[in-house]
């Protein structure tokens, strides 16, 4: 059966033609940077918000505008259309962009461990990913980690499309569901359902969340890229350690009114406990992008057919910005 992956680049060549890379300044001389988030404003991007409200980007001479993502505003498409200068990307999304010829360079990882996971009820007999064999899994069709799970454990399961509504999981104790460990477990608990999670990193499929820049922009504006990374790192360090992140959370809620304070606090606590941002075994600190690990993930995505050809990871990354900080 042909697999339909979920990262199409609509009108790709037309978007490339629209891409611009001009540098702009605000009235006070700060360089303007349009940062495209990969999804709606949320605590999982709290370091960028802290970078704005605490002045870490301003200290670098930058005026950073954070732009909401979403189903119709994917970060990759916005980069391609010239609607953003820098973006946060899912690793698999960034590699799909590169495979299709988009001139993007990966300069950092803002999240060392992707929070994606499979969630089951605490009472479920499913204890490992291998136990999903023959069961029903509610997830977004086409996400590559489903095929990785099947291949790693030589199993199969029935897929129920995830619509964003958790009603089925809450009503059916036999269902397993795709989740973020920073999000859905909190809301399940609020409904009285105790859950367990199995992360992708626990089975060796350890994805980054990365920072992507158009090559032309990075070449013309290296100091802006460096300044952005310094502000980002300072913002994340601040967000993870500050006693009070109310200002950042207020800004997040302004851009995404569906969130509540308790849910945001939960997400931040999980990121801190699980070391999602700085990494569990990362001596280089926040932002580091391990090229060898990136190559391993690329090969796995190639083996399951998500990527049709192997990508030159060395040519697709540029660590010189990080290394010069």
TrEMBL record:
It comes from the Bacteria. InterPro entries: NMT1/THI5, SsuA/THI5. Pfam families: NMT1. Residues 1-19 form the signal peptide. One of its GO terms (biological process) is thiamine biosynthetic process. Keywords: Signal. Residues 46-240 form the SsuA/THI5-like domain. SUPFAM superfamilies: Periplasmic binding protein-like II. This is ABC transporter substrate-binding protein. The lineage of its organism: Bacteria, Pseudomonadati, Verrucomicrobiota, Opitutia, Puniceicoccales.
């Amino acid at each position: 059966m042909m697999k339909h992956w979920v990262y199409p680049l609509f009108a790709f060549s037309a978007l490339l033609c629209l891409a611009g890379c001009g540098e702009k300044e605000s009235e006070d001389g700060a360089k303007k940077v349009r940062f495209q988030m990969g999804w709606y404003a949320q605590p999982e991007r709290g370091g960028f918000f802290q970078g704005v409200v605490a002045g870490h980007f301003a200290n670098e001479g930058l005026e950073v505008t954070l732009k909401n993502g979403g189903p119709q505003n994917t970060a990759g498409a916005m980069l391609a259309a010239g609607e953003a200068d820098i973006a946060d990307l899912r690793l698999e999304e960034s590699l799909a962009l590169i495979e299709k010829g988009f001139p993007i360079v990966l300069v950092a990882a803002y999240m060392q461990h992707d929070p994606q996971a499979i969630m089951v009820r605490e009472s479920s007999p499913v204890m490992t990913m291998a136990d999903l064999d023959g069961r029903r899994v509610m997830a977004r069709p086409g996400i590559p980690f489903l095929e990785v799970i099947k291949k790693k454990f030589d199993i199969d399961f029935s897929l129920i499309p995830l619509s964003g509504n958790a009603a089925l999981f809450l009503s059916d104790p036999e269902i397993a569901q795709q989740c973020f460990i920073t999000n859905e477990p909190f809301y399940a608990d609020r409904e009285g359902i105790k859950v367990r999670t199995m992360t992708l990193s626990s089975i060796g499929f350890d994805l980054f969340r990365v920072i992507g820049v158009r090559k032309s922009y990075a070449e013309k504006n290296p100091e802006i890229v460096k300044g952005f990374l310094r502000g980002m790192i300072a913002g994340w360090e601040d967000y993870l350690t500050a006693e009070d992140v109310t200002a950042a959370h207020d800004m997040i809620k302004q851009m995404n009114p569906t969130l509540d304070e308790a849910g945001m606090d939960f997400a931040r606590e999980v990121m801190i406990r699980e070391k999602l941002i700085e990494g569990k075994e990362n001596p280089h600190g926040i932002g580091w992008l391990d090229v060898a690990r990136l190559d391993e993930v690329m090969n796995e995505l190639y083996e399951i057919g998500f990527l049709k050809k192997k990508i030159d990871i060395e040519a697709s990354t540029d660590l010189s910005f990080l290394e010069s900080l």
